[in-house]
Amino acid sequence: MGKIFCLMGKSSSGKDTIYEKLMLDNSLGLKRMVPYTTRPIREGERDGVEYHFVTEERLEQLQAAGKVVELRAYDTIHGVWKYFTVCEDEMNLQIESYAVIGTLESWHAMCEYFGKDVMVPIYIEVEDGLRLERALSRERAQSVPRYTELCRRFLADAEDFTEEKLKKEGINRRFQNIEFDICFHEIKLFIQKEMLYNEPMGR
């Protein structure tokens, strides 16, 4: 039986970079579960890699087909942006393991949809000051920096990832992303152990 590894963490915790490196590691053989969103694509992003960037009409079609596992809507200064997870037709958890970037909301919904025995949380942490520095550097690199949206995300993270909520979802293991290579190595070993043994480890 395969697993779904759900990478979570506050914005600018490095989860996207870690996710990409995991997907390029052939020794793990993980398959992508690419999230969907109705927000505009950002510079440097690729459709079908970081997200599937879709219209509201496409979202409605997927909902009508019963393919939407979970859906979150955020009221930003640029309008309502929706993020959601889709159960793709080609998924085969009997023989393959998958990785996805998610939130606590999406984690909870996927546990209900796929079953908790299949789901494995990978929670990545970075000290808030360092995380804010990284976020500012990334935003400055945009042709049109959205600092207001950066601040909204930063404040929302404090509410979305409280210790109480993490404990409620049974997420106890943390991976500190201070030194990227060390953090990645720890996560890779964790995934290898989870794929090797039937009984979940480290949770």
Write the layout of secondary structure elements.
Layout: E1 4-8, H1 15-24, E2 31-32, E3 36-37, E4 52-53, H2 56-64, E5 68-76, E6 79-86, E7 98-101, H3 104-114, E8 119-125, H4 128-140, H5 147-160, H6 163-168, E9 174-176, H7 180-196
SSE order, as H and E?
EHEEEHEEEHEHHHEH
Q: Into which percent range does the helicity of residues fall?
A: 25-40%
Strand order in the sheet with the most strands: 2-7-1-8-9
Question: For the report, how would you describe the main beta sheet?
Answer: 5 strands, parallel
Mean pLDDT: 91
Strand content: 15-25%
Strand segment count: 9
Instruction: Supply the helix-strand structural class.
Output: alpha/beta
Q: What is the number of helical segments per DSSP (H or I, 4+ residues)?
A: 7
Rg computed from alpha carbons, rounded to a whole number of angstroms: 17 Å
Low-confidence stretches: 199-203
**Which descriptor suits the 3D outline?**
globular
Distance between the termini: 18 Å
Descriptive report:
The structure is a single chain. The two termini are 18 Å apart. With 203 residues, the chain is α/β, with parallel strands linked by helices. Strand 5 and strand 6 form a beta hairpin. It is globular. It has 7 helices and 9 strands, in the order E-H-E-E-E-H-E-E-E-H-E-H-H-H-E-H. The C terminus is likely disordered. A 5-stranded parallel beta sheet has the order 2-7-1-8-9. A 4-stranded mixed beta sheet has the order 4-3-6-5.
